[in-house]
Amino acid sequence: MAPFVFDRCNSIAERRANEIGLRYDRRSMDRLSSHEIYVIFLSLAVLLAVARVFGEIARYFKQPAVLGELIAGIIMGPTVVGAAFPGFVDWLFPMQGPVFLVRNGFLTVGIALFLLVAGMEINLSSVWEQGRAAVCVSLVFRQR
Questions:
Q1: Do 39 and 73 share a domain, yes or no?
Q2: Which of 3, 66, 88, 138 is deepest in the core (most CB within 10 A)?
């Protein structure tokens, strides 16, 4: 049973790497080195810590925490920190290899959970009220 699971995971990782234009080496995914595991956990810890700090800053200014978390993501990306410290960002957030694939998997699950929580917080009565207004506006201003 276990070899089948590992073969399936390797084929999924290989397909994902090919989709984004990376070279996939099956041998490199058999085992992660201690350094790669260290980089994975450090990058996730840095992302979570910075997001938490910026979320709290947003709350201090009476804004939703998610606004601060999104700003943290922009700052931690290639726009700000990547431009100021390109070597550090390339080391902490590599764009290829097993560290990239593992981090990309975590990020995909995180985005799915974020969308789930956002969907659960929607007030459906408000959606119906806004929906009626949107239909009325679309009918009045439709193109002919």
A1: yes
A2: 66
Residue 6 sits in the same domain as residue 20: yes
Model pLDDT, residue 1: 46
pLDDT, position 8: 56
* 112 and 90 Cβ atoms separated by less than 8 Å: no
Over the chain (144 residues), the average pLDDT of each successive run of 10 is 52 71 61 89 94 96 92 90 90 89 90 87 78 79 68
Which of the 8 DSSP states describes residue 77?
S
Q: Where are the alpha helices (DSSP H) in the chain?
A: 2-19, 34-60, 65-76, 81-84, 86-92, 98-120, 124-140
pTM: 0.63
Same domain, 87 and 17: no
What residues make up the domain containing 21? Answer: 1-31
Q: How far is CA 17 from CA 21, 44, 78, 118, in A?
A: 6, 20, 21, 29
Structure tokens at 46: 């840095």
